[in-house]
Amino acid sequence: xxxxxxxxxxxxxxxTVAALTVGALVLSGCAGSSLDQSGGEQADGPxxxxxxxxxxxxxxxxxxxxxxxxxxxLDQHGGKLGGRTVELVSADEGESPQTGVPAAQKLVTQDQVxxxxxxxxxxxxxxxxxxxxxxxxxxxxxxxxADDITGARKSEYVWRxxxxxxxxxxxxGAAVAEEAGGxxxxxxxxxxxxxxxxxxxxxxxxxxxxxxxxxxxxPFGTTQDFxxxxxxxxxxxxxxxxxxxxxxxxxxxxxxxxxxxxxxxxPLYGTGFLTEGGVLDAQGEAASGVKTSLHYSTxxxxxxxKEYVDAYxxxxxxxxxxxxxxAYDAAAVLDKALASAxxxxxxxxxxxxxxxxxxxSPRGPWSFDADHNAEQKYYLREVRSGGGGMVNAVVSExx
Length: 399
Known about the structure:
alpha/beta, 13 helices, 39% helix
């Protein structure tokens, strides 16, 4: 992963590719029955919150974004959530469940946190499900996108302030069916997230009358030369292309798509991770015209988002990303929940999470659905020149 690692470190958002991976893992020690389930801290005392994000390795740039977003909320609220001073205990998720699972277990069993926020990697999130369910401690996932997290393996103790792979992809299907004017070629990295992204898109695309010109999955994490795959696309009757790539692969795919001459002939669509944050910085003008679906853009023209972007830039001297917002909103959710759960115990806090209602977010108002997933608007974005560089301009709402 040397090349991938280097690009991800440069491109601040590049961890999404592996972050969305769903591992077929059976992890020993994920469910513990000897955990202290007695409740939280005193209602008038400080509250311990665990922040589980990558602090090292190829995923560290995304971990930094998430940590910054969570900390910004704390800074804006006097270091308190629910009126209680927060003692933030950070742990390094690392690059896989082998590091993320024990780090989360330590936060609960040794550090005695009231709740844990974060988690980049879907395999880690799925591996932690039973642990948090049995320990009766809330886990607020601020990135990992595997559908099963709030689907087949949902738990009353697991909540998600980010997205599910299928939904962010499905939001784009009808729009592409309307705009493409003919068959669309589907291409993605060959791993679980890529397949969920294709499946979600295909469902709504075909329901809206769209036709598929072809479908291809490229070797995940090892494909550097996309020319053979681009040649195959040119040989079809496709009128547009839908893709799922992120991080280093997104940079390579978009640049080579432009170099191969397809950008002028076949409009390129994808989920927002294709052009988000530092990935877009690395792609530069090669990404011009690419359209994506996502639940956030720095270019959202609302007072709430403008306030957030200004505050984030002032605090960190860079633009926020969807990852910063997801963690920022996790803090906002905990703020509401802790205010109505003075004991801080897991069962009490879970009830409070179910009653937080609408969240006033930079992404736009959203709330938890019945499965604890974020029910939110998705936006059609188009890469355009603006503000001295390329930005994801908001074209319209998708849902």
